[in-house]
TrEMBL record:
UniProt name for this protein: Bleomycin hydrolase
Catalytically driven reaction(s): Inactivates bleomycin B2 (a cytotoxic glycometallopeptide) by hydrolysis of a carboxyamide bond of beta-aminoalanine, but also shows general aminopeptidase activity. The specificity varies somewhat with source, but amino acid arylamides of Met, Leu and Ala are preferred
Primary subcellular site in the record, as a coarse category: cytoplasm
UniProt keyword Hydrolase, yes or no: yes
Active site: C70, H368, N393
Organism encoding this protein: Strongylocentrotus purpuratus
């Protein structure tokens, strides 16, 4: 293989400076964010925040801050819409810190238990599986079925009854501390497996390790109350109160009747050399021992769009996962392939790979979860052709239009990978796929990336 020669470098430099456009782009991009100069301002006026159907807006706009809790925020943001409608209240948030706390505890136990299973199989520490598991054992990210596990076991509660902590909105230090200890624990468990320790002794060791995890997490996040009393005013300024009540009973009595986690169906679009109308799961992708698996019902992209459209037409928001960093602009809040022109600035063509190829070559994966709250259609009587989508984000009001983004329909096709809709909007033939035995994908498969990546702010 030929090395880069000095003559080649001279030729590259000469060719670069021979084009005045390169100089202009260099002068601009060395002093500012290059993305600013790739934004096609002629396209920014094409996607206005006006929609054929829109879910009622609720306040306040949520903000996950410096954490990867997008999947939790998106779920609780979707959940609060029918809940607030039911109680006739103007502003409300569920406690994200409550689910965050229990996810750290449960995920640590899931990791330790999984490592014991892996070590019993004889997997080497330097092998790909163990290395992958140790890379990020207690990340902030997650998938929909992990939310089902948490809500069904621990319920939900108002944010005012268990508010944010510093480490819930800035989780890096907590995660570093827990990761260090979990790796220590994994080594100790491997030693026990190699010494043929009994299952009872290993279980006792994990309980001892979890006591430290609980202590560290409690110090950083606080401990969620076992019961709470919530006082509030409805829209008529009438005083109301709920409780004392447990978070689980609060979910069962006040939330589940209008937002049942068990009635939601997770549909993905994975066009790699895999079959549609099949079920998939990712090995060791979970957060709760004894909880349900993370399952994907793989369908063509039109199924994701049509079920999301039906949900929004009925006033129900939709949780979804996407690759938020592609062809997106933070200031304008646009997710639009046509709005970013890399060729004009850099002289390179984009989107040379199709959706399946981007997944295969590591060019795209799920990085962020948000909520669909509106949709534009072509205006025909059938209203089956979608043109754009309204998105509620969890990055505060400074992004897009007071926190809302607008997504072009072709961006949906290319970079949305997953939606969660109520089963009432899902065709019978799609629901029938749920009865199939899932194909198991390896732990590092990109369809599990949302649980590992969390969220990437633009």
């Amino acid at each position: 293989m030929a090395e880069i020669s000095g003559e080649q470098i001279v030729g590259l430099t000469k060719a670069f400076y021979s084009d005045p456009k390169n100089l202009l782009a260099q002068n601009a991009a060395t002093s500012h964010d290059p993305l600013d100069f790739c934004i096609h301002h002629g396209a920014t006026g094409q996607n206005l925040h006006v929609y054929t159907h829109k879910v009622a807006e609720v306040k306040p706009m949520s903000n996950q801050r410096s954490s990867g809790r997008c999947w939790m925020f998106a779920c609780l943001n979707a959940m609060r819409v029918p809940f607030m409608r039911k109680l006739n209240i103007e502003e409300f948030e569920f406690s994200q810190n409550h689910l965050f706390f229990w996810d750290k505890i449960e995920r640590s136990n899931y990791f330790l238990t999984s490592m014991v299973e892996i070590f019993k199989k004889g997997e080497p520490v330097e092998g790909r599986l163990v290395s992958f598991m140790l890379t990020n054992p207690v990340n902030d990210g997650g998938q929909w079925d992990m939310l089902v596990n948490l809500v069904n076991k621990y319920g939900v509660m108002p944010k005012k009854c268990f508010p944010e902590a510093h480490s819930s909105g800035a989780s890096r230090r907590l995660n570093i501390t827990l990761t260090t200890k979990l790796r220590d624990y994994a080594k100790a468990l491997r030693d026990m497996v190699e010494k043929k320790a009994s299952d009872a002794d290993i279980e006792a060791k994990i309980k001892e390790q979890l006591s430290e995890v609980f202590r560290v997490t409690s110090i950083c996040l606080g401990i969620p109350p076992t019961t709470f009393t919530w006082e509030y005013y409805d829209k008529t300024k009438t005083y109301q109160t709920v409780g004392p009540i447990t978070p689980k009973d609060f979910y069962l009595e006040h939330v589940k009747p209008v937002f049942n986690m068990d009635d939601k169906v997770c549909i993905v679009n994975d066009p790699r050399p895999k079959k549609y109308e099949e079920m998939y799961t990712v090995e060791y992708l979970g957060n709760m021992v004894g909880g349900q698996k993370t399952l994907y019902n793989n369908q063509p992209i039109d199924v994701l769009k049509s079920t999301t459209l039906k949900s929004i037409q009925n006033g129900e928001p939709v949780w979804f996962g996407c690759d938020v960093g592609k062809f997106s602009t933070r200031k304008t809040g646009m997710l639009d392939i046509k709005s970013v022109d890399y060729e004009l600035v850099f002289g390179i063509q984009s989107l040379q790979l199709d959706k399946a190829e981007r997944l295969l070559y590591g060019e795209s994966l799920m990085t962020h979860a948000m909520v669909f709250t509106g949709v534009g259609t072509d205006g025909a009587e059938t209203e089956t052709k979608t043109t754009k989508w309204r998105v509620e984000n969890s990055w505060g009001e400074d992004v897009g239009e007071k926190g809302y983004l607008v997504m072009a329909d072709d961006w949906f096709s290319e970079f949305v990978y997953e939606v969660v809709v109520d089963k009432s909007y899902v065709p019978a033939e799609v629901l029938a796929v749920l009865t199939k035995e899932p194909v198991v994908l390896p732990p590092w498969d990109p369809m599990g990336s949302l649980a590992h990546a969390g969220s990437s702010k633009l």
